[in-house]
Design goal:
The chain is α/β, with parallel strands linked by helices. The chain is globular. It has helices at about 10-15, 20, 30-45, 80-85, 145-170, and strands at about 50-55, 60-65, 75-80, 100-105, 125-130, 135-140. It has a 6-stranded mixed sheet. A hairpin with a 5-residue loop joins strand 2 (about 60-65) and strand 3.
């Protein structure tokens, strides 16, 4: 059997960012990694599957982005320090790319700022998590995306997840220099 060799497209040619091509680098703090693990376990029990560090079209990066069984997009912004929470002015940029938005925080973080109007409590849920589990303290209301944006985001999320899975199984598969 003859196998035809063809070059793999590079990331810039396909509009794919490095964050979409590769899994997270582990540069997060250990506490942030534990919060992410606990939230992913909670989500898995509720048939929500997510990826970490998902690039968004507005050049932001979601800490966790997932899809539930109904195709709704859930985004989680993880904060483990008060200074990081209070100094983050970019988080509203995420709201245009999800049906539900949650803050993910460790149990020891003071959550009182999340009740202020500046953090839109009527629009944002709160999840408290550690390395073992998580609990939703405030549910995020459904703010449905437009169908076209949802379709686009679901496709990007699916492609990023498949790309990351492929890289885990065969790291050389994504090496554009080895193709051809």
């Amino acid at each position: 059997m003859i196998h035809q060799s063809f070059p793999l497209p590079n990331a810039s040619a396909t509009g794919t960012s490095a964050a979409e091509t590769h899994a997270p680098t582990g540069s997060q703090t250990p506490t942030a990694q534990e919060v992410a693990r606990g939230i992913k376990r909670l989500f898995a029990r509720n048939d929500i599957w997510c990826v970490e560090e998902m690039a968004l079209p507005n050049n932001r990066r979601a800490d966790l982005m997932g899809i539930d069984a109904r195709g709704q997009i859930i985004l989680v912004e993880i904060k483990v320090a008060r200074g990081d929470l209070m100094g983050d002015n970019k988080w509203p940029d995420y709201l245009d790319f999800c049906d539900r938005f949650f803050w993910g925080v460790p149990p020891e973080l003071d959550r009182s700022p999340l009740e202020s109007e500046a953090f839109l409590p009527e629009r944002c849920g709160v999840i408290v998590a550690d390395g073992y589990d998580a609990e939703i303290l405030r549910h995020a209301p459904l703010e449905p995306l437009a169908a076209a944006r949802r379709k686009s985001q679901v496709e990007k999320l699916a492609r990023a997840a498949m790309r990351r899975n492929t890289a885990l199984v065969d790291p050389h598969c994504l090496d554009v220099n080895s193709a051809g």
